[in-house]
Amino acid sequence: MTVKEYNRSVEEFADSVYRFIRADLKDEHRASDIVQDSFEKLWIHVTEIDYSVAKSWLFSTAYHAMIDIIRKEKKMSFLEDTSNADILYESQYSDLNEILHAALDNLPEQQKTCVLLRDYEGYSYKEIGEVTGFSEAQVKINIYRGRIALKNFIGKIETLI
């Protein structure tokens, strides 16, 4: 990769990597640090990495750095009781974004990551597998289970509108 391609990758991919990491960590400063560290690692390996795989490489590097932080802080989330799914919202409640984020927060980390990469960032199953290290089958299962959990948490859309 050339310096020009590196600079272009910073312009094109920094925001999406940041949004992806911030959505999981909910900490702007740590998300910024992870993105910066990922681009620093890319710079160190700039001669070894082709521009065509830079986006996937950055997401994968940032994802693994985020997982390391979560493990260090012992915040690895596990499947919570379904009692959280019993939370009801008033029928006149109109902040759908807040409800969606609350639902996403209740997902296990693997499901949340796969759903965000697929539905928020638009990655293919294969690309998600490359980023997370999961097989395509595992990615599909995590997305399916995550979407079912979101549907159960949110309930009928008519009650939200």
Element layout with pairings:
Blueprint: H1 3-25, H2 28-44, H3 54-72, H4 96-105, H5 109-120, H6 125-132, H7 136-154
Fold and architecture overview:
The protein has 161 residues and is mainly alpha-helical. Mean pLDDT is 80; it is low at 75-93. The protein is 67% helix and 0% strand. It is built from 7 helices and no strands. It has helices at residues 3-25, 28-44, 54-72, 96-105, 109-120, 125-132, 136-154. The termini are far apart. The protein has 2 domains: 3-72, Rna Polymerase Sigma Factor, Chain: A (Orthogonal Bundle), CATH 1.10.1740; 82-159, Orthogonal Bundle (Arc Repressor Mutant, subunit A). Helix 2 packs across helix 3 (54-72) and helix 6 crosses helix 7. The protein is globular.
